[in-house]
Protein backbone atom coordinates (compact mmCIF):
# COMPACT_ATOMS: atom_id res chain seq x y z
CA UNK A 1 0.00 0.00 0.00
CA UNK A 2 1.01 3.61 -0.18
CA UNK A 3 -0.08 6.84 1.43
CA UNK A 4 0.28 10.25 -0.14
CA UNK A 5 -0.01 13.12 2.35
CA UNK A 6 -1.80 15.90 0.48
CA UNK A 7 -2.17 18.25 3.44
CA UNK A 8 -0.52 18.17 6.87
CA UNK A 9 -1.78 21.38 8.46
CA UNK A 10 -4.31 22.05 11.19
CA UNK A 11 -7.61 23.88 10.75
CA UNK A 12 -6.06 27.20 9.73
CA UNK A 13 -3.08 25.77 7.82
CA UNK A 14 0.50 27.06 7.99
CA UNK A 15 1.07 29.93 7.50
CA UNK A 16 -2.27 30.64 9.16
CA UNK A 17 -4.19 33.19 7.08
CA UNK A 18 -4.14 36.21 9.35
CA UNK A 19 -1.45 35.16 11.79
CA UNK A 20 1.84 36.74 12.71
CA UNK A 21 2.88 33.75 14.84
CA UNK A 22 6.55 32.76 14.74
CA UNK A 23 5.76 29.60 12.77
CA UNK A 24 3.50 31.40 10.28
CA UNK A 25 6.11 34.09 9.61
CA UNK A 26 8.81 31.43 9.26
CA UNK A 27 6.66 29.46 6.79
CA UNK A 28 5.97 32.55 4.66
CA UNK A 29 9.71 33.18 4.42
CA UNK A 30 11.04 29.63 4.20
CA UNK A 31 8.29 27.96 2.14
CA UNK A 32 8.93 24.28 1.40
CA UNK A 33 7.99 21.73 4.06
CA UNK A 34 6.92 24.46 6.47
CA UNK A 35 3.91 25.34 4.31
CA UNK A 36 1.05 23.05 5.32
CA UNK A 37 -2.38 22.92 3.70
CA UNK A 38 -5.37 21.44 5.48
CA UNK A 39 -5.04 17.75 6.45
CA UNK A 40 -5.87 15.15 3.82
CA UNK A 41 -4.33 12.03 2.31
CA UNK A 42 -4.75 9.56 -0.54
CA UNK A 43 -4.33 5.80 -0.10
CA UNK A 44 -3.25 3.65 -3.05
CA UNK A 45 -4.16 6.51 -5.39
CA UNK A 46 -7.93 6.13 -4.97
CA UNK A 47 -9.09 6.15 -1.33
CA UNK A 48 -9.31 9.81 -0.32
CA UNK A 49 -9.17 10.73 3.35
CA UNK A 50 -11.23 13.87 4.00
CA UNK A 51 -12.20 16.53 1.49
CA UNK A 52 -11.22 19.93 2.82
CA UNK A 53 -11.01 23.47 1.50
CA UNK A 54 -7.54 22.96 -0.04
CA UNK A 55 -8.57 20.00 -2.22
CA UNK A 56 -8.30 21.84 -5.55
CA UNK A 57 -4.85 23.18 -4.67
CA UNK A 58 -3.66 19.77 -3.46
CA UNK A 59 -4.73 17.74 -6.48
CA UNK A 60 -3.37 20.35 -8.87
CA UNK A 61 -0.05 20.63 -7.02
CA UNK A 62 0.38 16.83 -6.98
CA UNK A 63 -0.86 16.23 -10.53
CA UNK A 64 -3.74 14.00 -9.40
CA UNK A 65 -6.98 13.17 -11.21
CA UNK A 66 -9.90 12.92 -8.75
CA UNK A 67 -11.88 10.89 -11.30
CA UNK A 68 -9.68 7.98 -10.19
CA UNK A 69 -10.96 8.14 -6.62
CA UNK A 70 -13.27 5.30 -5.59
CA UNK A 71 -14.12 6.70 -2.17
CA UNK A 72 -13.88 9.62 0.21
CA UNK A 73 -13.60 8.70 3.89
CA UNK A 74 -14.57 11.48 6.23
CA UNK A 75 -13.08 11.61 9.71
CA UNK A 76 -15.53 14.25 11.01
CA UNK A 77 -17.40 17.34 9.86
CA UNK A 78 -15.08 20.17 10.96
CA UNK A 79 -14.67 22.58 8.04
CA UNK A 80 -10.99 21.77 7.51
CA UNK A 81 -12.10 18.19 6.70
CA UNK A 82 -15.48 18.69 5.01
CA UNK A 83 -15.69 21.42 2.36
CA UNK A 84 -19.35 20.85 1.57
CA UNK A 85 -19.58 23.44 -1.21
CA UNK A 86 -16.60 21.96 -3.06
CA UNK A 87 -18.43 18.64 -3.45
CA UNK A 88 -20.73 20.25 -6.02
CA UNK A 89 -17.92 20.08 -8.59
CA UNK A 90 -18.37 16.31 -8.68
CA UNK A 91 -21.84 16.87 -10.15
CA UNK A 92 -23.49 18.08 -13.35
CA UNK A 93 -23.20 20.81 -14.73
CA UNK A 94 -19.68 21.19 -13.37
CA UNK A 95 -18.39 18.22 -15.31
CA UNK A 96 -19.30 16.26 -18.40
CA UNK A 97 -21.98 14.30 -16.47
CA UNK A 98 -20.26 11.02 -17.27
CA UNK A 99 -18.53 11.33 -13.97
CA UNK A 100 -16.95 8.46 -12.16
CA UNK A 101 -18.68 7.79 -8.91
CA UNK A 102 -17.05 7.62 -5.53
CA UNK A 103 -18.51 6.25 -2.35
CA UNK A 104 -18.68 8.56 0.63
CA UNK A 105 -18.00 7.05 4.03
CA UNK A 106 -19.07 9.33 6.87
CA UNK A 107 -20.79 9.59 10.23
CA UNK A 108 -24.40 10.70 10.68
CA UNK A 109 -23.48 14.39 10.89
CA UNK A 110 -21.68 14.17 7.53
CA UNK A 111 -24.67 12.28 6.09
CA UNK A 112 -27.11 14.95 7.28
CA UNK A 113 -24.97 17.79 5.95
CA UNK A 114 -24.42 16.17 2.55
CA UNK A 115 -28.09 15.37 2.03
CA UNK A 116 -29.32 18.76 3.29
CA UNK A 117 -27.07 20.50 0.79
CA UNK A 118 -27.55 17.91 -2.00
CA UNK A 119 -30.99 16.25 -1.53
CA UNK A 120 -30.42 14.20 -4.69
CA UNK A 121 -26.83 13.25 -4.00
CA UNK A 122 -26.34 10.56 -6.65
CA UNK A 123 -23.44 8.51 -5.30
CA UNK A 124 -23.39 5.81 -2.66
CA UNK A 125 -23.23 7.03 0.93
CA UNK A 126 -22.14 4.58 3.62
CA UNK A 127 -22.80 5.55 7.23
CA UNK A 128 -19.81 4.79 9.44
CA UNK A 129 -20.12 3.47 12.98
CA UNK A 130 -17.41 3.10 15.59
CA UNK A 131 -15.58 -0.23 15.46
CA UNK A 132 -17.86 -1.62 12.72
CA UNK A 133 -15.65 -2.75 9.81
CA UNK A 134 -16.87 -2.02 6.27
CA UNK A 135 -15.83 -3.56 2.97
CA UNK A 136 -14.71 -1.41 0.05
CA UNK A 137 -13.32 -3.35 -2.91
CA UNK A 138 -10.53 -5.50 -1.42
CA UNK A 139 -10.17 -3.17 1.57
CA UNK A 140 -11.53 -3.42 5.09
CA UNK A 141 -12.17 -0.01 6.58
CA UNK A 142 -12.72 0.27 10.33
CA UNK A 143 -13.69 3.55 12.03
CA UNK A 144 -12.03 3.96 15.42
CA UNK A 145 -13.17 6.29 18.18
CA UNK A 146 -11.15 9.50 18.41
CA UNK A 147 -11.45 11.81 21.39
CA UNK A 148 -11.67 14.94 19.29
CA UNK A 149 -15.34 15.92 19.59
CA UNK A 150 -18.01 15.91 22.26
CA UNK A 151 -21.17 15.84 20.16
CA UNK A 152 -20.07 13.95 17.06
CA UNK A 153 -18.34 10.63 16.47
CA UNK A 154 -14.93 11.73 15.17
CA UNK A 155 -13.18 8.81 13.52
CA UNK A 156 -9.67 7.59 13.07
CA UNK A 157 -9.46 4.83 10.46
CA UNK A 158 -7.87 1.45 10.02
CA UNK A 159 -7.56 0.69 6.30
CA UNK A 160 -6.37 -2.79 5.38
CA UNK A 161 -5.91 -4.46 2.00
CA UNK A 162 -5.65 -7.88 3.64
CA UNK A 163 -1.85 -7.79 3.76
CA UNK A 164 -0.96 -4.33 5.01
CA UNK A 165 -2.76 -2.00 7.38
CA UNK A 166 -2.78 1.78 7.77
CA UNK A 167 -3.92 3.63 10.89
CA UNK A 168 -4.85 7.23 10.09
CA UNK A 169 -5.33 9.33 13.20
CA UNK A 170 -5.88 12.98 12.51
CA UNK A 171 -7.81 15.02 15.08
CA UNK A 172 -7.67 12.39 17.73
CA UNK A 173 -6.49 13.38 21.20
CA UNK A 174 -5.35 10.62 23.54
CA UNK A 175 -7.66 7.68 22.96
CA UNK A 176 -10.01 6.43 25.61
CA UNK A 177 -10.24 2.79 26.72
CA UNK A 178 -12.51 1.42 23.94
CA UNK A 179 -10.01 2.38 21.23
CA UNK A 180 -7.04 0.90 23.11
CA UNK A 181 -9.02 -2.26 23.76
CA UNK A 182 -10.03 -2.56 20.10
CA UNK A 183 -6.49 -2.04 18.86
CA UNK A 184 -4.97 -4.69 21.12
CA UNK A 185 -4.24 -7.66 18.87
CA UNK A 186 -4.07 -5.54 15.71
CA UNK A 187 -0.80 -4.68 14.00
CA UNK A 188 -0.31 -1.75 11.67
CA UNK A 189 2.33 -1.18 9.01
CA UNK A 190 1.87 2.57 8.77
CA UNK A 191 0.73 4.98 11.49
CA UNK A 192 -0.20 8.54 10.60
CA UNK A 193 -0.79 10.50 13.78
CA UNK A 194 -1.57 14.13 14.45
CA UNK A 195 0.75 16.37 16.47
CA UNK A 196 -1.39 19.51 16.29
CA UNK A 197 -0.18 21.22 19.45
CA UNK A 198 3.53 20.61 18.92
CA UNK A 199 5.66 22.08 21.69
CA UNK A 200 2.77 23.90 23.37
CA UNK A 201 1.57 21.62 26.14
CA UNK A 202 -2.05 22.31 27.02
CA UNK A 203 -4.68 20.53 29.10
CA UNK A 204 -6.96 20.42 26.00
CA UNK A 205 -7.45 16.76 25.15
CA UNK A 206 -9.01 16.97 21.68
CA UNK A 207 -5.56 17.18 20.06
CA UNK A 208 -2.06 15.85 20.73
CA UNK A 209 0.94 17.87 21.82
CA UNK A 210 4.41 16.38 21.46
CA UNK A 211 4.36 14.70 24.90
CA UNK A 212 0.95 13.14 24.19
CA UNK A 213 2.20 12.08 20.75
CA UNK A 214 5.12 10.25 22.38
CA UNK A 215 2.76 8.68 24.92
CA UNK A 216 0.51 7.35 22.14
CA UNK A 217 3.45 5.93 20.17
CA UNK A 218 4.99 4.28 23.24
CA UNK A 219 1.70 2.73 24.30
CA UNK A 220 1.08 1.44 20.77
CA UNK A 221 4.58 -0.10 20.85
CA UNK A 222 3.91 -1.78 24.20
CA UNK A 223 0.62 -3.16 22.87
CA UNK A 224 2.43 -4.58 19.82
CA UNK A 225 0.26 -2.53 17.43
CA UNK A 226 3.41 -0.94 16.03
CA UNK A 227 7.02 -2.12 16.02
CA UNK A 228 10.37 -1.15 14.51
CA UNK A 229 9.13 -2.00 11.01
CA UNK A 230 6.11 0.34 11.24
CA UNK A 231 6.31 3.58 9.28
CA UNK A 232 5.30 6.45 11.57
CA UNK A 233 4.33 9.81 10.06
CA UNK A 234 2.98 12.98 11.65
CA UNK A 235 0.22 15.22 10.31
CA UNK A 236 -2.24 18.02 11.25
CA UNK A 237 0.33 20.49 12.59
CA UNK A 238 -0.92 23.83 13.86
CA UNK A 239 1.11 27.04 13.82
CA UNK A 240 -0.05 27.41 17.43
CA UNK A 241 2.16 24.41 18.26
CA UNK A 242 5.15 26.76 17.85
CA UNK A 243 7.17 24.11 16.01
CA UNK A 244 8.82 24.42 12.62
CA UNK A 245 9.37 21.37 10.43
CA UNK A 246 13.09 21.16 11.29
CA UNK A 247 12.44 21.55 15.01
CA UNK A 248 9.94 18.67 14.91
CA UNK A 249 12.46 16.55 12.98
CA UNK A 250 15.13 17.10 15.64
CA UNK A 251 12.70 16.10 18.40
CA UNK A 252 11.02 13.07 16.85
CA UNK A 253 13.27 11.59 14.15
CA UNK A 254 15.57 9.96 16.75
CA UNK A 255 12.46 8.03 17.88
CA UNK A 256 11.79 6.57 14.44
CA UNK A 257 9.16 9.15 13.47
CA UNK A 258 9.09 10.90 10.07
CA UNK A 259 7.65 14.40 10.19
CA UNK A 260 4.98 14.56 7.52
CA UNK A 261 4.84 17.33 4.94
CA UNK A 262 2.58 18.20 2.05
CA UNK A 263 3.34 15.93 -0.89
CA UNK A 264 5.15 13.18 1.03
CA UNK A 265 4.35 9.76 -0.47
CA UNK A 266 5.37 6.60 1.36
CA UNK A 267 5.08 2.94 0.44
CA UNK A 268 4.65 0.45 3.26
ZN1 LIG B 1 -8.74 19.23 11.74
What does this structure look like?
- By secondary structure, the protein is α/β, with parallel strands linked by helices.
- The chain has helices spanning 22-30, 55-62, 108-117, 177-183, 210-223, 245-252; strands at 2-7, 40-43, 47-49, 71-73, 103-106, 125-127, 134-136, 139-145, 155-160, 165-169, 190-194, 231-235, 257-258, 265-267.
- It has a single domain, classed as Metallo-beta-lactamase, Chain A (4-Layer Sandwich), CATH 3.60.15.
- The strands form two sheets. It has a seven-stranded mixed sheet with strand order 6-5-4-3-2-1-14. Strands 7-8-9-10-11-12-13 form a seven-stranded mixed sheet, with helices on one face.
- The longest helix is centred in the C-terminal third of the chain and has 14 residues, at 210-223.
- It is globular.
- The termini are close together.
Question: What is the CATH H-level superfamily?
Answer: Ribonuclease Z/Hydroxyacylglutathione hydrolase-like
Helix content: 10-25%
Small molecules held by this entry: zinc ion
**Regions with pLDDT < 50 over 5+ consecutive residues?**
none
CATH architecture tag: 4-Layer Sandwich
The total count of strands amounts to 14
SS strand fraction: 15-25%
The main sheet orders its strands as 6-5-4-3-2-1-14
| Tally of individual helices | 6
| CATH topology title | Metallo-beta-lactamase, Chain A
Quick one: CATH class?
A: Alpha Beta
Radius of gyration: 18 Å
Mean pLDDT across the residues is 96
Separation, N- and C-terminal Cα atoms: 6 Å
Taking the sheet with the most strands, its summary is:
7 strands, mixed
- Tell me the structural class: alpha/beta
Amino acid sequence: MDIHLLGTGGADGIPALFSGSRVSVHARNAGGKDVRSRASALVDGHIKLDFGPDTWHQVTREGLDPREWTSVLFTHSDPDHLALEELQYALFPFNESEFSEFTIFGNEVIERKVFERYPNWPFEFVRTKMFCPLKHAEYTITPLMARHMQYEEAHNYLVSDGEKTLLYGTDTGVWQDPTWEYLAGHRVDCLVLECSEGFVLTPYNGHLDIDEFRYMVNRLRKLGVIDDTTTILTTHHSHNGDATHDELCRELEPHGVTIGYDGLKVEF
